[in-house]
Design a protein that fits this description.
Oligomer: homodimer
Helix content of chain A: 40-55%
Radius of gyration of chain A: 23 Å
Number of strands of chain A: 6
Number of domains of chain A: 2
CATH architecture of the largest domain in chain A: 3-Layer(aba) Sandwich
Structural class of chain A: alpha/beta
Distance between the termini of chain A: 81 Å
Low-confidence stretches of chain A: none
Strand order of the largest sheet of chain A: 4-3-5-6
Largest interface: A-B, 66 and 66 residues
Strand content of chain A: 5-15%
Largest sheet of chain A: 4 strands, parallel
């Protein structure tokens, strides 16, 4: 009787861990397993070391919440950044997107959550306290809410804006409008509505 | 001036290692990175341990070439397997597929390569020596070539068959025909041709 209906235990354990990763289906997980446990173990060793090192050294900036290898991230440490501007984003990766646009030279604050009644995230779950405490301490001239132009982003911005303005800090939202470099045919009617109401004289 | 156009170095190193995995594109790699370096580090720790353990303990069976945590895999060690039948497959995962079908109770031999002129794999590159030495030693009654019904599989089988038969060992190929449980409309004409020539009286 053949007992071997699976890979060896340690290989199955690795397969199970791979299957839990986002955007990896069962077939991809097996393809990755076979790649990692192939004759040439160098790529797997590289991955193992990279994973250990990242887990050991990459934490979160205690001021803004972005990834950092020390207590403060390189942005918060950078003396050249404009400390009068604070951009509030929902997720860590949003910091990188905005940095890559090269258009913002202020500081960031990673909120970590957005209001989402559907996912059971109400005002109680929103980590507003640390943001308000930071504003009170750092007193930026303006807070830019960059929380996304979807329902969650708008709702969260509408909730936060009065709390920030109460501290006497100017509060703004990223513009919603036509994506750059496309014709009108690529914009939905809601976006077109925002593009109209946000139109600027030239 | 903002220097932060990337994640911290150790995070970028992990991202680079993830990008080298098969079936993972740049977007998936970033999604996995953010998942692994999220506040909850438990899934990443589990993956790190599973990877280390698999690399340390999972090797290859010195007889058949399948994955094994010891010198011999559980199939080769299993006294209940029919040692008169040897099934030659191209890749390790093929062993698992055949085991899962539950229809074969003999032993396996993982060839590791198939003839493929397009990929520069000629008879010199085919690891035939270990197979022929094993046959000479173990003297199975029959060798079943399960190398696939594509061009590489056929070419490899046609090359191996005379070498095996020269040792006085019966040699067979897996049947090519209609996939089970489908209508004729799902079989291409080449498959239909094989299904005709391999027809069996009922």
């Amino acid at each position: 009787m053949g007992r071997m209906k699976t890979y060896p235990d340690k290989a199955e354990a690795l397969l199970a861990a791979l299957r839990k990763l986002p955007s990896i289906g069962p077939r991809s997980a097996e393809r990755i397993l076979l790649f990692l446990l192939d004759q040439d173990r160098a790529p797997a060793q590289t991955l193992a070391v990279a994973l250990e090192e990242a887990l050991r050294h990459v934490g979160f900036c205690e001021r803004c919440g972005f990834f950092s290898e020390g207590p403060l991230c390189t942005i918060c440490q950078d003396a050249m950044r404009d400390r009068s501007l604070l951009c509030v984003v929902a997720r860590r990766q949003d910091v990188l997107r905005l940095e890559q646009s090269g258009r913002f030279k202020g500081l960031y604050h990673v909120l970590g959550q957005r209001l989402s009644p559907l996912q059971g995230i109400g005002p109680q779950e929103l980590p507003v306290g640390p943001l308000l405490a930071r504003l009170q301490k750092e007193r930026p001239a303006e807070v830019i809410l960059a929380l996304g132009s979807d329902a969650e982003g708008h709702t969260t911005a509408l909730y936060l804006a009065p709390l920030i303005k109460k501290q006497g800090i100017r509060t703004s939202l990223l513009a919603v409008g036509l994506p750059a470099g496309t014709g009108l045919e690529y914009a939905d009617s809601v976006t077109l509505g925002y593009a109209f109401s946000g139109r600027q004289e030239i």
